[in-house]
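fwd from M.: "can u put these together and see what the complex looks like"

so here's what she sent:
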Amino acid sequence: MKLRLTMSAILALAAAPAVAEGTINVLTWEGYADSSFIDKFVEESGCEVNATYVGSNDDFAPKLMAGGGVYDLIAPSIDTTQLMIDLGQVEPLDTAAIEGWNDIYPKFLALDGIQQDGKYYGMPYSWGAIAFMYRDDAFDTPPTSLAALWSEANSGKISLWDDKSSIYVAARLNGDMDIYNLSDAQIEAAKQKLIEQKPLVRKYWSTAGELVDLYKAGEVVISNTWAGYQSSLLADEGIKVTEFIPEEGAEGWMDAWMVVKGTPNKECAYKFLNMQLSEQGQCGVANVNGYSATNGVAAKSCMTPEQYAALHQDDPDYLDSLLIWQPLGERFEAYLNAWNAVKAQ
Amino acid sequence: MASIIELDKLSKHYASIAAVDDVSFSVEDGEFVTLLGPSGCGKSTLLRMIGGFEEPSGGVIRLAGQDVTWTPPYRRDVNMVFQDYALFPHMTIGENIAYGLKLMKLGRTETAQRVTDALELVGLHDKIDQRPHQLSGGQRQRIALARAIVRQPKVLLLDEPLSALDAKLREQMQLELKHLHEKVGITFIMVTHDQTEALVMSDRVVVMEKGRVAQEGSPHLLYDHPRTPYVANFIGTTNFLDGQIARAAEGTARISVAGVELEAVTDSPRRAGEAITLGFRPEKVRLLSEGESGENEIPGEIAEVVYYGLGLRLAVAVAGGGRVYVDSLLPDRLADTAVPAVGQPVRMALSPGNIFLFDAEVA
Amino acid sequence: MTLLRERLGGAAVLGIPLIWIAVFMLLPYAIIATYSFWIKQYPTFVPAFQFGNYLNLFTDPQYSKVLIRTLKVSLLVSFFAFLLGYPFAYFLAFRCRSQALRTWLYMAVIAPLWVSYLLRAYVWKTILGTEGILNSFLMSVGILSEPSDIFLYNQFAMVVTLTYIFIPFMVMPVYTSLEKIPRNLVEASADLGMRPIPTFLRITLPLSMPGVAAGFTMTFCLTFGDFVAPFLVGGPDGNLVASVIVTQFGTALNWPMGSALAIFVLVIVLAVLSLSDRVERAFSPKEA
């Protein structure tokens, strides 16, 4: 899996599959087109599914801009959906053609970044937190603050996502909680904080598989994580880790399916959207990735009560406590530049 | 004269093959000695052992009385002219020649002087700043010589020095080398497979066969008194005929061969009835004209006529199935009728002193 | 008629590769060069003609830092590849008497080229890791009492990995140039009184310089453009210029900046190539 992820990240351009009748190419996260629930869809709908995986939200734009009309569907996160709309890469959704649209939690439908001019461009699919995670056997007292990622005690055992989100983390540690609207000075402060942390960092992780590897090889004991995902992969490997939401809070994310502008496979694309929003897709991703569902009705009927609770399906307070990603728009460059400067250091 | 090089029971074995097998001879100071033999006879290996590039499997090499058997080449007072010259391609001619002087601590002026002298000796002082690739084969050859001589070694080794040159240039260089030897007075030991080169240039020739010395001596001695058919054949052309001693006396013998009996001079005592190989040079055979008679007449029939400018070479079939080559210089004006025709019967004469006798089993 | 046809045939033979080069090499460079003058503007970038991206290269310390680091790593990799590759090639060309052994050893160096680059980089990860083979070995022989994390995820690991991966590109040209040196030049040097080490320095090394220059150029340029090693075994301080270019073209959607960086790298690589070409020519034994 590790290899597959890396390969898809590096050789993405080479992965342009042949387009057959009734074949949809989806550019998405690993697990979002898992055979555990996609096989059934392929059989019932007659639509073949070719999935290409991304390691980061920043992979969507370059791949779509490379042209070639390769992809039919994409599933970027809420901080990237607006960019897709602004790039003109996606088309408005025919929400009437999507069964269960009205069962989506209103809070997600109201988020910035999936609507433009009164039309929906993104179908909320799954959500979760960018939680933090530590290896149980490495801590006598469980960490509760981001300060643990800046602590000498964990020197050489810390990892952070190689992503602009590291600026969010550092800003919160600095007490700047409005992380999506940071001023230049606040970004600079976050950058300095990250430079200060750098000697303690073992490696910045880029893919889910890489982070799992780092924990497995004993290189890392604390990091941020895509809540529910890497921890379950590690649990499968017999490595005990605990996720936690630090005192400084955590970011939240939501992924939305979008239809690439001018797709010739609209019929299959909408069949796919319908499946993903149904119990089949909602519980499919919950079971594979450990992510929460956006269709409360479907979640309620296909999840066990324990899973339903564990995934905070009906927990408005939890959702409200998360700082849900927002499109950064023109400020994106400032954030990214600061992060690049940290890495260049 | 003192021996400058002494080889004492020198051997070189590769696995089970003896490339050089128990060779002993010495070279006098100032002598020009040639090691002659076909490829694979061990002559190059022998030379390379003298130069220090091969370690002997046994035996001793002495240079000016000192044992140098295990001395590395860079501490031997001998220098080598390599077959393809081995000039350093990344250095100028001047740098090539000065290379061997670097460790002599001569000082700049003296070095420059020696380089100039060496170049003048070979007539190429105008090439000092050129690179080897800009020179012709003959010029490179001379530079290789100059580079070796400039160190004023006790012995100069030459490994087939002329083999890469064309025939014309080779002839010219033979004499040049000989003159150079006379001029510098250094001992030369040359390896060649070319008998003409050996005869023209050397004071002494060592003929080698299968790693051993077949015979050594002056060119004259080797030509006129080859000890074995191998030597006789390697130096010059020799007719060989198988025969039998009819009668033997002190210093002479009568041999029945090709249907006749011939008189020959012999150094070793012979017994009547002994099988023998008899050899003689084509140019020592005289064709008898009609009515003329001579010593040791052999009748035959002309089988082939080859014209080679300087003269004619006739192949004459003799009784017993042998074939004899006869070289004859052409008269000033050659009348067409005088050219012998194939099929024509002839008689040949051969003086007893010009016949070599070899033990039959050696042949 | 036939003449014309022959000419057309000839034109096709020459023309197709030329068109190929034009379309697949020169055109992309021209496009990149054009982009490098454009300007970043949300959501992507717009045509312009300005030197801001190039100016950025020199004024924003993040670029100069990465460039200098890349230069350093590339030089180190080339140097170590030379240090390890040269003696090996020398042994193969001059000391190894057995033809079979020579072929075998040569193949042993070249064979990894047939193995996926990623796989080879991964191998080093398992060797250098905190719980890796190197640490286990050092602990088993008592040099370390607990595993050290100094071997992986830093510049050392990158240099080791890249040296290992690119060493064939040093060994191959050096071996070829050593092979071409006539053996009797070394003998001639000894004959002229030079001991083995001065002989090596004055004859063998200079005559193998074309191979060294070629090997150095290849390892240098390959390292300069590498972004996989920083990704796999590089640490927080392991960003190289190729990774930055990838980021600019990908994450940042700043193709103009990425293009300016790429053009700058191209200039460096061309400079190295012309320098090595000069070295090669200076030392090449020309044939008459």
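replying to her w this: The domain at 3-234 of chain B is CATH 3.40.50.300 (Rossmann fold).
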